[in-house]
Amino acid sequence: MLGERIMSKLKLESIARTAALHPWRTMGGWLLVLVAALVLNATLLGDALTATGNFTDEPESLQAAALVEEMRGPDQVSELVIVRSEELTVDDAAFADHVEGLAGEIIALGTDVVQSAITFTQVPDPSLVSADRHATLIPVVLAGDVDQALANVDLLIEKARGADGEGGYQVLMAGGASIGEDFMKIAKQDAITGESVGVGVALLILVAVFGALIAAAVPVLLAGISVVVALGLTALVGQKWDLAFTVTNVITMMGLAVGIDYSLFVLSRFKEERGKGLEKFEAVARAQATAGRAVLFSGMTVIVAMSGLFIMPSTVFRSLAIGSVLVVAVAIVASMTLLPAFLGLLGDRINALQPARLVRRLLGRRAHSHDGVGDTGLGLGARERHGFWDRVTHAVMARPVVSLALAVIPLLVAASFYFQLNPGTSGASTLPDSAPTKAAFDMLERDFSFGQMAPVEVVIDGDPTEPATAAAIEEVQRSAAADATFAGPGQLEISEDGDLAVLDLALMMDPNSQRAEDAVRGLRSEYVTAAFAGTQVDVLVGGETALNVDFFATVNTYTPWVFAFVLGLSFVLLMMVFRSLVVPIKAILMNLLSVGAAYGLLVLVFQKGVGADLLGFQQTPRIEAWLPIFLFSILFGLSMDYHVLLLSRIRERYDETGNNTESVAFGLRSTAGLITGAAVIMVAVFGGFAAGDLVMFQQMGFGLAVAVLLDATIVRSVLVPATMKLLGSANWWLPRPLKWLPDLRVEAQEPRLEPAYVQEQRR
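and the corresponding structure tokens:
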């Protein structure tokens, strides 16, 4: 058949044999790649990452930014240094002298670091002084372009923090660069936390699954190598495109989750084949021809799903897609080459260092178990442990309608909260209290307005002195002055040639807040539209808040296209793998149900605060705007691991027996331990990242962990057997007009030993 020829060309078993027969060459090649990746990480990765996102198209805010840059020059980075005294006011000479002295020290950092630092004595601007007159601002403009400013901001941070407490004055600092710096530092710490928690729990689970320390260590080692190599590749890609700093966290999290799971699948099948009596190299080939194909298909599904994010014209989504695709691809290649090399080198020594046996020996008791081949702890290869899953499966299939209702109704209830989801973005208000800029942000919000750091920019492209245009500008200023969300009528700046003007309107709240975004929407749709109606100029509204508004609009516009892309390609792939029209439809519906439930639980925990304190999460009024579509893409790909593994075993048995009920029971019990172990590992890894301090990673880790848990429990143990019982043989129905589709089923036939391999074995 065409499908068989396509799959045979992949020659996964031949690749595995070659790697197993020549383990030192294979591992030597990987060592060179690993060293190169480490060098790239050390030299290039830092420059490849940014704390800001951008668009790959041109929404209104970017068009406005381009005009502002045309008038004012390249965008510059500004910071606010806050000086506060509990005893003195700005009217006291000692306070003024201290502020002037600090400003002088800042200027003394050099013209290549600081362009200007203004005090209230130099510019008597009321906005630079707090209402109680016990605090003042020193606006600092960093020298050079954005890259140069970000490289030098640490010098300003060090100066401000060194001055804190001197003479009884409190000195704090906040701005786009310093806040971004805190976000990046905490993100790195969160990655370390996620790694330590995830790896630690994963090792314990793998020891329980395999019953041997060496077998448990190999998947973790391969996952770690995959992460390092993927980060190196990301460093290279980052030289071409700016990548969001979150890409490193995504790579680490995804690499640990899929890297461990993929190795777990192949290693488990190898041990199973060895338990059947196959020779070492033959078992490696068989494991790759079966579980290896499942890994390849599952990984390709993840890559396809994550590639849908490239549709989004945003560097944030592009970064998430690049990181996920790279680490999954590396993990697939590692499972196809490096893992067989380890198995070829170690053989049955993969079962070395069995804790249970060591304990028995220490206690002087005789070990009654065999050498561990084929025994994988959590139900893999242990027939006496099949009873539980047999009982669960048969109980569900005995009352499929009731079971289906009991599973679907709670999921639908949880998913219903999705309609209350309030998308937004994490600003400085979500930083942990330990972050240095958090205290500065709180003081700015209390005594000044953080909106001063990121004013809304109304760009008038045309002659602002023309009577109708001038009248329109004044009308916008009057409207802003009467609106409590703005700090007055704003400041108007006109270009030297007189054909462009920018009206800066400071907000009275966090530029990342819902109120700020509503203010920008109102400014665009009401104030500007009404004021400039009938004029001959083009008016654009830009600034940081406007960028957020355009980002949310972009997400809403392109989300249906991403859904269509992921669902469409997944449907086609599943249809070709299982030769069925029903299976992919069911898989898609079940995945949508578990993803929807995960969305709803995110809203319940983070927006509504249900259980947030108990779980150690920060309650927030909003869910990260990029998160729902990211969760959809990644979960749709990851859930295929379990579906492919489970359904391929069911289909394999059904082809042999033709008994639908027995095949479902066989599929569930034969994969129960493997899927349970793999799911718990993923939940542990995702939960480790949810234990971090940044709310964006708390939300991401929690959403992923919950969805995987639902998919591996309710979907696997209830929805799959119930629906398969109800549909019977119709599960495998494929309309006659589609019979021409290639057969890409995962489970391959027993591979034949090649003559070269036989000769190698005889040597």
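(Above: one complete record from the training split.) Residues 1-9, 362-386, 748-763 have pLDDT under 50 and may be disordered.
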